[in-house]
């Protein structure tokens, strides 16, 4: 069971599924169990997974019964080595909501803080001033209020849980939100109206530490799946731009504006061996101890020299990119321009790319096969197309995804 990293505890099977799939999309090997933790942990398939989603079938149980099964399952997952836990609850508050959250919190860590946000803006679920809305209507005025088994009688979630409440603050940073959460009590309800609010909350949870227990629907699970993948990996993403197309140059400018460490050698640097060796040496010195910069960007200079063709430029930049990747322990590589992408892969001794997804149309995402960088995430893109944020999105795809070799 040493491969297990994340546990998902849901009160019904469909909820377990719609939450687990968020981790699949972020690249986590994920197993969805139809039963409880004991059954899931005994399944031989679980040995090769990193995320396990279990189903307590507790939505229709009494609060006391629900608390017992949730406590048992969380304890079993923790004993199996799970480092992070996500408690899935119904996005319309159905079931023994309060009992399950408190049982999960107590079983997870002695000083755990349950951070509760059932909002899922993409499906019309929002939380404002502590009140859960469905398509703009308080949940107690929807069909959830007349559910024949688990009717919802309270739309104000802090009241339902007897919990602290953290309201929205315009322009607040994730760090500030994390600090407010940590001082709001052992169970804290946090407002979220937009996808941006959900993303900020996920960042705050990641900053607050492993004793925080996130509680929510598939809405909060999606950004957490990406952030937990990111937290488990280190290093910059190396981006190589050899294309002279204005679209590629504009996309590179966005990375520069976002703080990328950038190298644009001159044509003279690239033309001769001695100046180029000196330039590469200086670049390698500049990355020593750099464990905070997220992007290392190599951009081909514009213009031409009679003795320097485009293939030679690509080969030189591919050579430097390989040094940055291998000696700088990079997290991944993004290459735009066909000649540049080929040069980077050749310099890394790669035999090919195992494709796993695409960032967007025309931007495949995969991992390198063969050579000393085997398993390294890679995105390739032609130079003459893509939105202005295409390279930003490619970097995010590499950083916020789990890659299993």
How would you characterize this protein structure?
- The chain has 14 helices and 18 strands.
- The protein has 405 residues and is an alpha/beta fold.
- It folds into 2 domains: 6-231, Putative sugar-binding, N-terminal domain (Rossmann fold); 237-399, Molybdenum Cofactor Biosythetic Enzyme, Chain A (3-Layer(aba) Sandwich), CATH 3.40.980.20.
- The two termini are 18 Å apart.
- The mean pLDDT is 92.
- It has helices at 13-25, 37-42, 63-79, 97-108, 157-161, 174-182, 195-208, 218-231, 246-257, 267-271, 273-286, 310-327, 338-347, 390-399, and strands spanning 6-10, 30-32, 51-55, 84-88, 113-117, 125-128, 131-134, 137-138, 164-166, 187-190, 212-216, 237-241, 261-263, 295-299, 332-336, 352-358, 364-369, 377-381.
- The strands form 3 sheets. The chain has an 8-stranded parallel β-sheet, sandwiched between helices. Strands 13-14-12-15-18-17-16 form a 7-stranded mixed β-sheet, sandwiched between helices.
- It is elongated and about 80 Å long.
What is this structure, in a nutshell?
By secondary structure, this protein is an alpha/beta fold.
By CATH's scheme, which homologous superfamily of the largest domain applies? Putative sugar-binding, N-terminal domain
Rounded mean pLDDT is 92
**What name does CATH use for the topology of the largest domain?**
Rossmann fold
So what's the CATH class of the largest domain? Alpha Beta
Alpha carbon gap, first and last residue: 18 Å
CATH architecture of the largest domain: 3-Layer(aba) Sandwich
How many discrete structural domains? Answer: 2
Can you count the beta strands?
A: 18
Contiguous low-pLDDT stretches (5 residues minimum) are none
Q: Output the radius of gyration.
A: 24 Å
- What structural category arises from helix and sheet content? alpha/beta
**Most strands sheet:** 8 strands, parallel
Strand residue content: 15-25%
Give the count of helical stretches.
Answer: 14
Instruction: Determine the fraction of residues in helical runs and give it as a percent range.
Output: 25-40%
* Anisotropy-based shape: elongated
As laid out across the biggest beta sheet, the strand order is 2-3-1-4-11-5-10-9
């Amino acid at each position: 069971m040493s491969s297990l990293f994340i546990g998902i505890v849901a009160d019904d099977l469909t909820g377990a599924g719609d939450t687990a799939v968020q981790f699949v999309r972020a690249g986590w090997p994920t197993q969805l169990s139809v039963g409880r933790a004991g059954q899931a942990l005994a399944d031989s398939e679980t040995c090769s997974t990193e995320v396990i989603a279990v189903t307590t079938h507790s939505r229709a149980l009494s609060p006391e019964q629900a608390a017992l099964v949730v406590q048992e399952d969380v304890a079993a997952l923790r004993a199996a080595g799970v480092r992070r836990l996500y408690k899935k609850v119904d996005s319309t508050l159905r079931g023994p909501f309060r009992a399950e959250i408190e049982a999960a919190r107590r079983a997870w860590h002695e000083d755990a803080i349950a951070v509760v946000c059932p909002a899922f803006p993409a499906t019309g679920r929002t939380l404002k001033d502590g009140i859960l809305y469905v398509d703009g209507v308080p949940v107690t005025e929807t069909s959830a209020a007349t559910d024949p088994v688990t009717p919802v009688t309270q739309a104000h979630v802090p009241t339902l849980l007897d919990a602290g409440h953290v309201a929205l603050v315009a322009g607040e940073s994730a760090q500030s939100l994390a600090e407010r959460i940590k001082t709001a009590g052992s169970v804290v309800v946090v407002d979220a109206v937009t996808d941006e609010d959900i993303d900020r909350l996920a960042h705050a949870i990641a900053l607050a530490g492993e004793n925080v227990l996130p509680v929510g629907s598939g809405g909060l699970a999606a950004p957490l799946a990406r952030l937990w993948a990111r937290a488990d990996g280190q290093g910059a993403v190396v981006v190589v731009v050899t294309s002279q197309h204005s679209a590629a140059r504009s996309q590179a400018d966005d990375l520069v504006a976002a703080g990328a460490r950038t190298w644009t050698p001159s044509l003279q640097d690239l033309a001769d061996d001695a100046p180029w060796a000196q330039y590469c040496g200086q670049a390698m010195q500049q990355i020593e101890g750099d464990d905070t910069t997220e992007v290392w960007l190599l951009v081909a200079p514009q213009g031409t020299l009679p003795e320097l063709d485009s293939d030679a430029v690509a080969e030189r930049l591919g050579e430097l990119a390989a040094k940055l990747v291998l000696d700088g322990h990079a997290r991944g590589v993004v290459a735009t321009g066909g000649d540049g992408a080929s040069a980077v892969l050749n310099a890394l001794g790669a035999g090919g790319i195992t494709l796993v997804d695409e960032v967007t149309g025309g931007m495949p995402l995969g991992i390198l096969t063969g050579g000393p960088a085997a398993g390294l995430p890679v995105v390739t893109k032609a130079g003459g197309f893509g939105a202005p944020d295409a390279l930003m999105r490619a970097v995010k795809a590499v950083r916020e995804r789990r890659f299993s070799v």
